[in-house]
């Protein structure tokens, strides 16, 4: 394949060399192609459709002087003067190929060709748009004119109209003045009229792209008509505020004027990071409401404006408050002890700040080292200890957001550069690192110096004023001014800056797919609306290939609701699928992607964009696709932990791609230029550190003040004698010393006079003033030169980055994607979905559940849960807004719902089915789950009233509650479940709503289990300053069997995950019944729907019953007997049995009869105690031995029960165990209940067998005797008379009827005894019937209980148990036999 590609490239290059001969190189002589012009443009189109390198060279040639001459030859033809057939020929063979070439998606998306494309479109536009107007006016006239015998224009096709409108749209985009040029309006109106007409020859083709391009042009021109003729207004200036409530609008729309220099009605003018004025402003920022009628912009513009402002406030707002407080501290020089408590954002502040060094990095740009005072806690530590402290603290990690500020209100935002390993903890002099060309991190680090820590930063935004400020701080060193370095832990610029920049770009273009559905401009009825099909599906004959979702023949691999959702999603341009917990959202999403991939070629879909909320979710989705033989996958983003996807990462894929010849040459040029400019910057910085040296000042005077230079450094005096300077470095110093000897009473002259005065006539103060002015001029000149050099450097670096992006775009086929699939859409911020909707998208599929977690935001006052934030509702996802709009005048879009859950046991699923998902059903597979061993129920709420511990003292700024009682119970329950030997620790998950409880759970459990905390919880813990090791390095070796991965997570970060058994610590328990986070049904829903086999909740029912959904859940649990104080089935001991606070009598009880240990000496975590009803406490190990548990259970080597033994012998009454102290029953101890009850059953069965055998023998003997008597009486028998005179005796019918007739005979007395014996035998059979036997009666009671409380699985007795059976004789139903044995139950 590689050879084929190389051959194709060679052929393409050969064709290009032939084509370029048609491009003139000497443009001073005009040459025309004439009849070769169609060939020229058609060959150009063919080459552009070929390999990327040739495409770039063709466009570059067209943008050259010779290429523009060929374009001029094309558009200068007077089309209207030509005959119509000739006009059509020119359009089809020249204009259309040219338009297709310059509007090719790969051309418009190329960063390398951006300048060339701009040149071509600017040329087409001409002076005041005259070229474009003339060309398009002729094209429109031609398209309107019908062909004879056709009745309509055959030129009006999808290809033609798409090319024409695409070129027109690009011309208007590139040339802003086109918006106010009136002749463009009739052209656009005519094109719109053409697109509205029916197509010729019965064509049924989609004009989606053409209409889309034209709508974009119409939007831009409509803006222009509202602009004043003297100037171009911004988009936001076109609309006036129409507030119906008293609100202060943004920017100049406010009656009070702008709040500060970063307040504007146009978000494009708002800088992402706050400005100094913004920090100091006391007025509230303008925050748009969630009601479109209350926005200052309508429709799509209003939506984008609202999202930008709220997302920015959510991230920047809290930082702004923190920095404002620090400004006040720097000005007042007061204590900062309350700093962390007076605003929400957690910050670390460092003082004594100075900029110490600079360097230029090829990828990061300008880097600089900043020194600050070491925290007091590490100053007396060794370098090794200081290093360990900094690494453990997680402070100043790579990419962390920080800002530098001073008491003069200057502020510069920066990011921490990724630190490399320093070769030695040495610290260079100012500028020395720049000269040595070493990375700054090899010279400056946090731990090398006991007094000063150093960190390497780079600027967030390229702003020359920021660079200038850095140079000022650099020159002033540590001694001048009060400065601070403020760190915002956990705040990463890439998490919000790209989104905000994208929103700014989108409001400029106003190009968003499905804009009329997402941001309607007109009020609508609340009824559902019909969603149009994806544009690409409207082509004649198009059909989706569904073979990938068919398991065999015509049988689908999807259930009915999944299949319905798939069909709906494929037939709607904007498709919404709600997936309740466990219904297979991801499975349905994968099925959709497979169908789309199978139809990709026919529909020309381009790449399918898959968006997920978390890296983990994206990895899962892509791994599933890989496992199902989907190979063409590229993963964007570097935070994947999947080994299977490593080779599919965009960065690695791009590295394997070959740059084009133009790209290689351009990269070589840029790297050479960057090398030169790096050397220039190094030299300027080196000079900047030496601005006061005599050599620097001498050179400055020579250039700018030659008269003063000659006075100091001249080689001749006034008399013409030659002056010899033995120590030229002392000349300026000697001059200042001489002037200091002169004393004068005159007032010092101003600098303007001194600059032209004799140097020797100056006083001490005058000479110092002049000398300082020279230094200031030198510094100012150097700074200006540095800014110019750095600006040029950044421009070339940006071009180099664009080259790299060009390869990425090519790898993604220029991202001309028509389909976007978003998983967990209910958890994704609307702004993130909007920015992911590329203009090319024709089909968006959002899969989520608005009843589960909402998007996570930082500022609670912007959320639906907050009373103040409900009017903003930033955490309302686009998915929720479309399927469940809160406003009455907004339409609800149709959506599909998956209805069969395959995760939870029915008893667990009922908690969400009966409260939220009334139509949700259970798949049969969940009926077969095994019971959870070691506990009495698979679903249980362990109710308690132990109070919460309030705010976690380790949390300085974040509200985080804990509950120590639940902490202990959770640890004990997890250990108990694992000890049953059925579930691995990786099958169990521990959930809690609070980060403080998570922290304590981690510390409590890490000694026994290997704890796994997901990435999101790790980030939150680290944001709070927590050191989070994945494993405990001191885990005891004796616990290796428990060292498996226990999942511990907060509720918010466990959505999309599941576990066989889930243990939940609710934490909150208070008299005020405050439930905190868990008052919303969304979180409750997620919490209750993670478990498959078993779920155990630890919490205070009284506290949580005040929440409506919790009240319903608790009611359901109480009705089923699933609420109580004991989850394991054992009765909890009374408080007096507490090992810590119990009486001396309790503590001194002997609980082990082998080692004679007393209660207070027992480690209950290692060897728990049991508490029978009789009151005699014993250790489990002691009682297990007495009960001979090893005779009935299989044990693992470490002492855990793993299974029942299959050949346990029956008990006898004498062998049945009891309390060794009082012989009391142990039936109330669940651990031994099976053995005790088995013993009772066996004893009852043996008693039954003894009775049955005794009765059987007695009856058998009587029967034999009566049979003998009956035989002996035959010879002397008298024939009885018939009851009916004159008739024979006939004994017929069933046996009971025969006996009845015998009783009616005159001489029936001879049968009295035997008939009585028969009755006795019948009574015996009834008593010995299997339904009356002990085991069968127990079975009947169990089955009755199972019917009252529905459960799953089959119930059968072990075939080895001792039972009695009564069978009938095979040939004689009245003959029976009794058998006693252990071979089954009958």
TrEMBL record:
Annotated protein name in UniProt: NFX1-type zinc finger-containing protein 1
Region (Disordered), start-end ranges: 241-263
Species of provenance: Cryomyces minteri
Source domain of life: Eukaryota
Cellular component GO terms, alphabetical: nuclear RNA-directed RNA polymerase complex
SUPFAM superfamilies according to UniProt: P-loop containing nucleoside triphosphate hydrolases
ATP-binding in keyword set: yes
Domain spans labelled DNA2/NAM7 helicase helicase: 558-685
Any one GO BP annotation for this protein: regulatory ncRNA-mediated heterochromatin formation
GO MF term list: helicase activity
Protein's UniProt keywords contain Ribonucleoprotein: no
Keywords: ATP-binding, Helicase, Hydrolase, Nucleotide-binding
